Amino acid sequence: MRMSIPVIRCAWSDLLLADLSVSVVFCYDRELDARSVLSGFESALARTPAFAGRLRPSGAELEIVCDGEGAEFLERDSPLTLPEAIGRLTLPDSGLVDHVDAPAARAGRGPVTRVRLNRLADGGTVLGCSWHHAIGDMGSFTTFMRQWSAASAGEESEESLLIEDRAAFLDAMLPEKDSGRAGFRVVDEQESAQLRSIAESSTLANRLVQVYFGEAELARLRARFEQESGRRLSTNDVLTAHVVRTVRQLDGDTAERELVVPVDLRRTLGTPRGTIGNLLGEITLRGRDVPASRVAADIRAAVEDFADAHLTLRTSRTVLEELGPEGLDRCVPLGFNPPERTFTTSSWRGFGAYEVRFDGAAPVLMAPAISLPLPWVCWMVEGFHGTGALCTISLPAALATRLRSADGRALLHADREPQDELPALASAIRRLL
User: Which helix (H) or strand (E) holds 404?
Assistant: First the structure.
């Protein structure tokens, strides 16, 4: 008897991300057994079939047909060592990841998930992973990765929640009232053309910078900001504020600007960690040149008041319904506004990336692999062996050069002490700040 193929109806929030893919690398300091890795990959896809599906346009909507045909796994030998491989992540084409072609996948002409196992010259391994953003967010993908890890080891893994009607699911989970603001901007034809031009020229115009903050350094930074602000702060609060204010200072920018901080909504909505989809909201703060500790305190206050002051999904849906199907092309995420230097900081800390073990080994690093370096974006992850923090920052080329200068390093690492010990791998990576 032939089993029916699950079909997922995407929500409008997935459609806003339908021309984007996300890519990351998981780095291991040993050679992984490709056979067990591949076997685990296939088992995890069976448990979370959205990552092996195909996207299918359905009128103005988008569906994921979970037919098992949309995932790709390749093996390659690389001449790079592990430090060289990590150092190449600041290049738009690191040579370690086969990036999903998002527009092609959206039209059903390509895979939604691509994995490349890179065997390195020094015996290490890099798993380059890329997936279409409409399938799910980082929380979704790390759930899939933990299932993959468990399956490779022959262990039981956590459950994932496959939702066949994401729009109806969100409608049932969201509170009746939210902030009253939409989570996107509606732009005219002129601004839309300007933003397309910025995106198309981003590889030439912008540069990626990697910055590592050690555990002791982060602890001092947090203690200093808590003393200055007079309140408890999280590491994400202080790291976000510190990076943004450092960049603004180097840029000589004292104008009123917006800061956008994406937020995982699973806790807010009370959904399981393994819920697959794009359960993302954002905090938007607008302000002038103020001390970084003040920015950190404002972020913490926004997190605490998120449901009332920053949740936008229900209002966003209402605005989209008023615009009609053709209006979606005029909607731009709040965080993408380069002419106004809107800064977006995404934290992937706390998603369990270092639980992804293969052959008993945890990754020495999980990091983003950015193929489209749009400006004014920062991604934060746990650093080497899950310690400290690694920030990957995309900036206009001249500003990236200033960040790499002696003055930039001094501002970034004002709380680093000479006696601080850095992981050996961090010291071996060229151009890591």
Answer: helix 397-404
pLDDT digits (tens, 9 = 90+) for 257-272: 999 999 999 988 889 9
Task: Say how far apart CA 400 and CA 91 lie, in whole Å.
Answer: 13
DSSP 8-state symbol, 4: P
Measuring CA to CA, which residue among 141, 149, 161, 159 is closest to residue 355? 149
Tokens found for residue 374: 């749009």
Q: Which amino acid is at 364?
A: V
pLDDT in tens, 373-395: 999 999 999 999 999 999 999 99
pLDDT in tens, 87-122: 999 988 889 999 999 999 999 999 999 999 999 999
Give the DSSP H/E element, type plus range, for residue 283.
strand 280-287
What single string gives the DSSP state of each residue in 175-244?
-S---SS-SEEE--HHHHHHHHHHHHTHHHHEEEEEEEE-HHHHHHHHHHHHHHHTS---HHHHHHHHHH
